[in-house]
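Narrative summary of target 7.
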Amino acid sequence: MNFGTLSLPVNSSAITGPLTALAVGSANVGSAQGMAVQTELGSLVNTLCTGTLPCTNQSRVIPVTVGACAAALGNANVLID
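Modeled conformation, tokenized:
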């Protein structure tokens, strides 16, 4: 992924879509569970990209992406354990 061209939250689906597929499985992305995960991840990205730290450059987009990954995949790990 070219983070230099990614401006969040406008393009947040470029992050939330693949993370949702990893968290719930590709076959479940369109399910109620998958949609809920994608909505929550989108909300997280929107929250992290508002205020005095907008996601308009790599130095902000990358940490927000890492945070979204940790939220999605970290929660999946907890569910498995």
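The mean pLDDT is 81.
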